[in-house]
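My current task is to audit a protein record that another person submitted. Alongside the sequence sits a line of tokens, each denoting a local backbone shape. Please read both lines and tell me whether the tokens look consistent with the sequence. Do not assume that whoever made the record got everything right. Thanks in advance; the entry in question is below.
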Amino acid sequence: MPVIQLPSPSGMEFYRLGLPAAYQAPDVSLNRIAFAAAHVVADPISAADPWTEVAIDWDATLAYRRHLWSHGLAVAEAMDTAQRGMGLSWAQALELIQKSVSEASSVKGAVVFSGVGTDHLFPSQDFTLKEVESAYLEQLEVVQKAGSRVILMASRALAMIANDPEDYAKVYESVLRQAEKPVILHWLGEMFDPALAGYWGSSETDIAMDACLQIINANSEKIDGIKISLLSKEAEITMRRQLPERVRMYTGDDFNYAELIAGDDQGYSDALLGIFDAIAPAASAALAYLAVGNLDRFHEIFAPTVPLSQHIFGAPTRFYKTGIVFLAWLNGHQTHFTMVGGQESARSTLHLVELFRLADQAGLLIDPEMACSRMKAWLVTRGVG
């Protein structure tokens, strides 16, 4: 296996790569719903200034969705993993949704749910609740018209102006009435987006959860499930046990997903995870073993992916997209490590070096020779080697 010199806090050291994992998973229908929140691939040779304009490599972006579908995963489109609100505008998100839905139509069994939010509103303290509601409805209409199911994203504008849980209830209930099919709600924690602090009307998790549950209970026929991204298994389990019977909990916990998906004697979580973008082969295999009742193999496959995920989603968590794209590049899914908004610079050299090690130790570098070659080339651009 190839050997590479890698920097560490104490200097350069030799590192020998291991073999990629061979899962040999059973070919079965899954007993958990599993979404991967998918990233976008930037166009590396566009003349667009990445800080002010967005250029997307559509062929590579759509090819990555086909990769996710090939592993039996549904695609959560135009979410925060696609840099929604961190480089990707609403106009570009809508184009992404339309192209993804069209691509899915040619793939048997492909599923797409897409993010509906209010991110086309210009940041301001002067919004009214009616304007936020109208912004949600505008996006809802065009996403449904595109043929996608809906994920109702958290709104920075609503977080900015809402005074109490009742304000959230007014907006959400109005929007949910216009949903043609049950939607997935998304509670995105402030570690992912500081602008969403105090969502549902309180900075106290228990109080915020109660407010959210009231909305769900009052509108359960319009809600397929809720994804919570708080990186707290305790909070997720507490909320999961209080959901109406037919409303699903989709784990958004990139630290504790294995335990939450496996569940307990009172229930389990389905999955809607950014990390599944990066670990699709492992996720698919683990879920297949879970479906046939082989819990030991399920945990055996997921166990080495958890330290990798915890590293990728480490604080500041909102920069996790950099690690997701870096791993996609190492594995040959794109020809470059360039991101929308120039976000390839959001993580340090040592952070990405450790990601490389952890991905290798999880058996997730599918072609170690190629990954090693790309890592060496990238390190030169960082002044190493």
